[in-house]
Automatic annotation (TrEMBL):
Keywords: Heme, Iron, Metal-binding. PROSITE patterns: CYTC. It comes from Sphingomonas floccifaciens. It comes from the Bacteria. Pfam families: Cytochrome_CBB3. Residues 30-121 form the Cytochrome c domain. This is C-type cytochrome.
């Protein structure tokens, strides 16, 4: 009985995770898989805590755990896929003088990074 319950729990977890990733990709027009790679390439974890990213333990920027459930991002922006991707790509245009530097993230990479962040539930 315990084995069946554990197996059922694991299956439910995997189904939920798959659904979250599929939904994140659809709502951002990005790819959470490419986003994971972009996060590593741009070393986002040097400033942020990012779930699922090895070594992403930065304490300079905000902890990005659960960013998909937040109402506000970047201090005063509504949390929606377009706003998040725009902030990732051009943080100084969205919040001039803010701590997040321009990293040269393309619009497509920003959608991918947003997809990764939204996929983390």
């Amino acid at each position: 009985m315990i084995v069946v319950a554990a197996a059922s729990g694991a299956i439910l977890y995997l189904q939920t995770r798959h659904a979250a990733r599929t939904q994140a990709d659809a709502m951002t027009a990005g790819s959470w898989r490419r986003g994971e790679l972009a996060i590593a390439r741009y070393q986002c974890g040097s400033c942020h805590i990012i779930p699922g990213i090895s070594g992403a333990t930065g304490a300079v920027g905000p902890d990005l755990t659960g960013v998909g459930t937040r109402a506000i991002i970047a201090g005063d922006q509504s949390n929606d896929p377009v706003a998040l991707a725009r902030f990732i790509a051009h943080p100084q245009r969205v919040r001039p003088g803010g701590a997040m530097p321009e990293m040269g993230v393309s619009d497509g990479e920003a959608r991918d990074i947003a997809a990764y962040l939204y996929a983390q539930e």
